[in-house]
Amino acid sequence: MNIIVVGLSHRTAPVEVRERYALPESEWAGALDRLRSCQGVAEGVVLSTCNRVEVCAAVRDTDAGFEGATRFFGSYHADGREAPAPHLYYYASAEAIRHVFRVAASLDSMVLGEPQILGQVKDAFDAALAHKATGVVLNKLFNKAISVAKRIRTETRVAESAVSVSSAAVELARKIFRSLDETRVLVMGSGEMAELAAKSLVSHGAERIVIAARNQAKADALAREYSAQAVAREGFMDELVRADIVICSTGASHYLLDARQMADVARRRKGRPLFLIDLAVPRNIDPAVNEVEDVFLYNIDDLNSVVEANRREREKEAVKAEAIIEEELAHMVKWLRSLEVTPTIVDLRQQVERLRQAEVERAMARYKNGSEQDLRAALDGVTSALVNKLLHAPLVVLKDEATQTHGALYVDIVRRLFHLDEKPSRSADDSVRGGEPQADRSEPRGT
Q1: How many whole angstroms separate alpha carbon 283 and alpha carbon 299?
Q2: Among the options 38, 50, 56, 248, which is catalytic?
Q3: Burial of 194 (0-12, 13-18, 19+ CB in 10 A)
Q4: Does residue 56 carry a catalytic annotation?
Q5: pLDDT in tens, 229-263
Q6: What DSSP letter does each residue of 157-173 carry, written as one string?
């Protein structure tokens, strides 16, 4: 049994291709059925996120598995559209296992160390389990991938430190106030950057969030989603007096806050510090605001330097993570290879057992009412016949292969399998001679 991965991601396909093959959760069951119906696929998991769509399968024949997985992508569309062959990547064996580990640990993500992918991998695996699409091989692989990802998060800092401007803004707020539980945060704007900031604030414990935006409907919707409070745009000046942190990201092409306004706000705050974080381009806050006493302004360039430093730190930690993956990969590959010998061991035991039973029946038929001498002769005949039958096939192959260029390899393997170079034990010698073990006549050693 082998493991393969076939898919496309942000590294190999543009967004218009990825979105064409994305699978909503409602279609996962059908996708698993299509994958399992592909020739050569014994087990399967389908992972679909905004940045990747890929299948992982346990297959008996790697080439047939690749062909079937490729057809799976072609089965997405009733119009017969071909699979996105130029965008697909193919991994097998150790490379496939390494890829699954790296995906779960977010080392292959667009944002290195992002936490969402592990949950998405778990969801894909759970769906396959519920649909009975996995077995011994993929159950082992995905359980190991999840544990490897958790180990990497525990033993490295690859998921720490903000690597987006919005998350860097929240990280800065946390450094200023240590805890966001008791702080009041005003978010000005309702676009993507403002939403990301609101989401990050909530995830870091902020409970008092106020949304102010020109589009009241959007502000209300954002407030509902993140348990915040929405205020009318004209009322945001009063919120500036109450807030501790202001995150500003609107589409305005002019300054929304200037030094004169903020001087008035500072006077009303009576010395309480106010931290302004301007994420907008063009900027929404006049740089001269920094001159107002007790008001501290940070812009997107300030945060970009933090983001870049954090990204470099994550990349350093990723080196440690890759080392962990290689260590765990070796264990997984060893386990997978051990599966290959299991059918041979079972067949060998069954064949030997058939020979044993046949010889026992033959001996019993001969002995029946015979004497002890007859029994000894029968047992001798049984064991001799058994030895001859067990050794016949391997000896024939050994003699034939000994004349080939690789014959020495076969000889070495046989000697290792049967421990022929080890000194026989006393009990083994005695059993061969048929006599009783000899007493140890050596003198006792002193203590």
Answers
A1: 8
A2: 50
A3: buried
A4: no
A5: 999 877 788 899 999 999 998 888 889 999 999 99
A6: -TT-S--SHHHHHHHHH
